[in-house]
Design goal:
This protein is α+β, with helices and mostly antiparallel strands. It contains 5 helices and 7 strands, in the order H-H-E-H-E-E-H-E-E-H-E-E. The strands form 2 sheets. Strands 2-4-5-7-6 form a 5-stranded mixed sheet, covered by helices on one side. A two-stranded antiparallel ribbon has the order 1-3. Helix 1 runs antiparallel to helix 2, helix 3 runs parallel beside helix 4 and helix 4 packs antiparallel against helix 5. It starts with a helix and ends with a strand.
């Protein structure tokens, strides 16, 4: 019995060693396969980003030409019949939307390829907000939407990229007006804290359903409502907004109540001057 036990133990050890060897070999095979598949996936993703960048870049020229000719025709638009004027306005809106989509795709492609340029320096928050309010005010006025900006006595400076910060404020203001109700309000405020500054944009619009809120910063996401079904957009504005804020070292926050409105806010580091 002792001899048989010794033989069995020896066979068991041999079996264990053989099993461990096969497990190691199979693990190495799986690891190599996984690394190859991961490399393929990265290459496919790189080619996709490169294609999007090239396609969007090449589309810029014909779209610019189309918009240029439309602007020329618009100078004499009042001489055309009413139906022709409506067609021209539709074409201008469509070309504008296409141009915005191309610019958004280019910005995302540059970000994912780490070629987007961020130049951080001290900038004045009040000046940025006032500049963007001027741009959006004509659109707000057509819908009787009042834009209220509570300016601080002393405007704090933040460390950020001037152009990108204006783009962020412009995106949030644009959404606050587009998805607002007639005769609504948009309130902007600046909140200075110890280490950062918060810029807040609050609207009295249609709000975002709770079940959709987790998707709000995803690419191409748009909240579909009966009241906003005709509002045009690319669904990339908030994705780009979050991306730019994070690249400048800030954070974005939001809250929304369906039927009552939304509040978007972002923080950026305070300039130490």
């Amino acid at each position: 019995v002792a001899i048989q036990n010794a033989k069995s133990y020896a066979l068991l050890q041999q079996f264990n060693q053989e099993l461990e060897k096969r497990v190691r070999e199979r693990t190495d095979q799986l690891k190599n396969t996984q690394e190859k598949e991961l490399a393929k996936a990265k290459e496919v993703n790189r080619l996709k980003d490169e294609f999007v960048f090239i396609a969007a870049h090449e589309l810029q020229t014909p779209v610019t030409v189309i918009r240029g000719f439309l602007d020329l025709v618009s100078e004499a638009q009042s001489k055309f019949p009413k139906d022709i004027q409506d067609y021209l306005n539709s074409m201008k809106n469509a070309s504008g939307n296409l141009s915005q989509l191309i610019n958004d795709l280019l910005e995302i492609a540059r970000s994912e390829n780490n070629t987007i340029k961020i130049e951080v320096k001290p900038i004045n928050t009040t000046t940025c907000i006032k500049d963007e309010i001027k741009k959006i005010k004509p659109i707000a006025d057509r819908r009787n939407i009042k834009i209220n900006f509570k300016m601080p006595k002393k405007s704090p400076k933040i460390m950020a990229d001037l152009i990108k910060t204006k783009e962020v404020i412009g995106n949030l203001l644009n959404n606050a007006v587009k998805y607002n109700k007639e005769n609504g309000n948009v309130d902007l405020s600046i909140i200075e804290r110890d280490d950062d500054v918060v810029i807040e944009v609050r609207d009295t619009g249609y709000g975002i359903a709770e079940k959709e809120q987790r998707k709000i910063f995803q690419k191409f996401f748009r909240s579909i409502k009966r009241e906003t079904i005709e509002v045009t957009g690319t669904g990339l504005g908030l994705f780009i907004t979050r991306m730019l804020i994070e690249k400048m070292g800030g954070k974005i926050m939001f809250s929304s109540v369906e039927g009552k409105g939304s509040t978007f806010a972002f923080s950026l580091p305070k300039a130490k001057i």
